[in-house]
Amino acid sequence: METTPLISCNESTLTPYIPSGENPWNTTKINHVYRRLGFGASQDAIDAALSLSPNDFIDNLVEEAINKPPSTTPFWGNYVIADFTDFDEENQQYIQDWKIQTGNDLITENLRGRLASFWMNHFVADLESHNYSPYLFQYYNISQTHAIGNLKDFVREIGISSAMLIYLNGYENTNVEPNENYARELYELFTLGEGNNYMEQDITETAKALTGYNHWTELGAPFYFNEVTWVDGDKTIFGQTGNWRYDDVIDILFEKRATEIATYICTKLYKYFVGQEIDAVIIDNVINPLAQTLVDNNFELAPMLKQLFKSEHFFDERALGVIIKSPFDITMQFINESGFFYNDELMEALLYFSGIYGQKLFNPPNVAGWQRDEDWISTSTLTGRWQFTELYLSILFQNGLAATFVDFAKELTNDSNDPEYITEVLVNHFMSKELYTASDYTIATDVLKWEIPQNYYDDGLWNLDWEEAPYQLFLLLSHLATIPEFQLK
Questions:
Q1: Which residues pair with 235 in a beta bridge?
Q2: Across the chain, how many H-helices and E-strands are there?
Q3: The pTM is what?
Q4: Per-domain residue ranges of the chain
């Protein structure tokens, strides 16, 4: 069946966004940045950004991501099997520990965490394929190290990581029996896109050049190259003939298909950070210029990302609230934007529930990764997305932390005693767009008012210091998750 191409309403260009009276720099736009380039932010962070220009704000976020060192290597990060005392128990514990570490990184690191999450869904190397804590750490370390670095270096290193060599059968790729899995995905999913200016012969010849990474110094050590299992002889890749090895493949790929790589990667990053809808106008005015910037900067990612994030196109009103939140967005963004308590134990629960709702950390559904956006929502996951917020708030409430709901509301509303105003402020704080109708705010206000007689509100007697206020705020905050706009960022 023929499908109708998506047509975007966002006709803005990559011209830098400069605030004006008609298009001001405000908390809505700052929230937009933090929700797309990170997993939300506190009100203090948003207020601090108001004093910066959009240009400086984006520069700060990008430079922070560039300069942030990778997470500290755990003592077991480069273990071999012989280093474990009780492999089964310790290995599973270290995997769980690193999942929690990764969750803590994502929720706190803004752009670096967001990009690491993106790349692990691009260069997929499923944890279940190896189930080995040192390989998990090493894979994540590469994703952090290159998250906003040089794409060519990233492609070069990730392809011979132990996790990837196992996941896409590179360790089985020998001169006796070449395996084409990684060569195929290198072009189809990782760099060029399906069918984009490569032939079956290129895959076959590339697989031969990638042979040889089949050896350990000992069980559980990283794989290394050995010429004994490498195809020694001429291979022709993209019209170039020579006795190529792994590094030669990457060099030839980025030399002969630079434009295709840049266009494919920029398109994928655009869909992740801006929106799914791409038409001919966006291709001409946004994607192609971004791709040229990436090529001109020898595949350094930062200049291209700065160009996108500073643009009128990124800040266009029609770019706000058009992406469906992932399970990580639902959970992590709410925590960041509320400032409510969480610790490692809660992070473990957060990751567990995210997995139930469709995003299991380090385990995308297949080599193509999560397709995101509408795929996040189904009849089986939607109610779960609602329930997480209520469950998280219930945990806080039952553990004596309900007073933080009141402190939060007081700070945002300047300790107002007007339920309509409190509701509007809290609703708008968590939404990328205002609610569709005024009646939606009325319904939310009625949730906040709960069973308190109306005359207490009319006479100004009720306030946020009332004994019932924490529970009322619990009800309102739980209700927010059921509002359709809450699902968008």
A1: 242
A2: 25, 4
A3: 0.96
A4: 28-67+259-319, 171-188+200-253, 327-487
